[in-house]
Amino acid sequence: MMLVRVINPNTTAAMTRSIEDSARAVAGPGTHVEAVNPAMGPASIESHYDEALSVPGILTEVARGENEGVDAYVIACFGDPGLDAARELAHGPVVGIAEAAMHAAGLLGRGFSVVTTLDRTKGRAWELAHRYGAPCRGVYACDIPVLDLDKDPSVLDRVVTLAESALRADDSDVLVLGCAGMADLAARASARLGVPVVDGVAAATLFAQSLVTMGLRTSTRTEYARPPVKNYTGLLRPWKIDR
Ligand code: 2AL
Questions:
Q1: Gap from CA of 151 to ligand 1 centroid (Å)
Q2: Could you tell me if residue 104 is inside a domain?
Q3: HSE, side-chain direction, 13 A CA sphere, residue 98
Q4: Is residue 73 within a helix (H) or strand (E), and if so which, with residue range?
Q5: Which residue CA neighbors atom 7 of ligand 1 most closely?
Q6: How do residues 91-114 score in pLDDT, each as one tens digit?
Q7: DSSP reduced 3-state for 222
Q8: Are residue 115 and residue 173 in the same domain, yes or no?
């Protein structure tokens, strides 16, 4: 049995459960998907500050997973927080949902548009699109806070309305959902928009599963080698790596 651990980097357990549902819905029969969230950190991630403070909790979950025989990890927040650091700790592959969604979207059309949550998260989405060399043509904010996504019954309508104008303005072929909390919208949004709609939770779960199936893992030849051992002071002492 392959064990894929999906880390919701925020501490909202209800969101972790819905992320787990989305990941389990696509995982193969030989894959056990378990979603977790850190015990400490922000309730949602919608700023650089939130993102930075989510990383120690993410790394704690990766360290725990390494002791529990986890084969691969998904970092289920669209800012891909702590992705590089997690790769330095984990034996198996680590896949971010923005990374997975943007790569998948590039396989499905010439260009894609992203719908994210708050306006202030657009910069990070662009930054990641550039990092991944992805054919992103536009990033749009629906102005719904992460923790309201599962409360407001108008979310689907608002995302679809925004996406329609985004696809037209960008002449895009594909829509990417810019938050793990939007995962359950993908099928309904695609039916209404008539284009592929990529949910990063599903994409990252299946990329992780595929890499493990192919026997592939993160290269340790250069920068993703285990980090050098050193002291960490103050509150960060527990994050000292043994060896
Ligand atoms: C996210 C996400 O995926 N999880 C979270 O807490 N914030 N993304 C976003 N664009 O706000």
A1: 15
A2: no
A3: 29
A4: strand 72-75
A5: 45
A6: 999 999 999 999 999 999 999 999
A7: coil
A8: yes
Residue 102 in any domain: the answer is no
Tens digit of each residue's pLDDT (9 = 90 or more) over 120-172:
999 999 999 999 999 999 999 999 999 999 998 999 999 999 999 999 999 99
Nearest Cα to Cα of residue 149 among 12, 9, 1 = 12
Q: Clarify whether residues 92 and 129 are in a common domain.
A: no
| Cα 79 to averaged position of ligand 1 atoms, centre (Å) | 7
Which residues contact residue 161 at a Cβ distance below 8 angstroms, ignoring those fewer than 6 apart? none
Report field, pTM of the whole predicted structure over 0.85: yes
What is the CATH number for 217? Answer: 3.40.50.12500
Q: Which pLDDT does position 54 carry in this prediction? A: 98
Protein residues with CB under 6 Å of any ligand 1 atom: 10, 44-46, 77-78, 116-117, 121, 146, 178-181
Helix segments in the chain, DSSP class H: 13-26, 48-67, 83-89, 97-108, 122-131, 155-170, 186-193, 200-213
Q: Which domain holds residue 129?
A: 109-199
Within this chain, do residues 42 and 6 fall inside the same structural domain, yes or no? yes
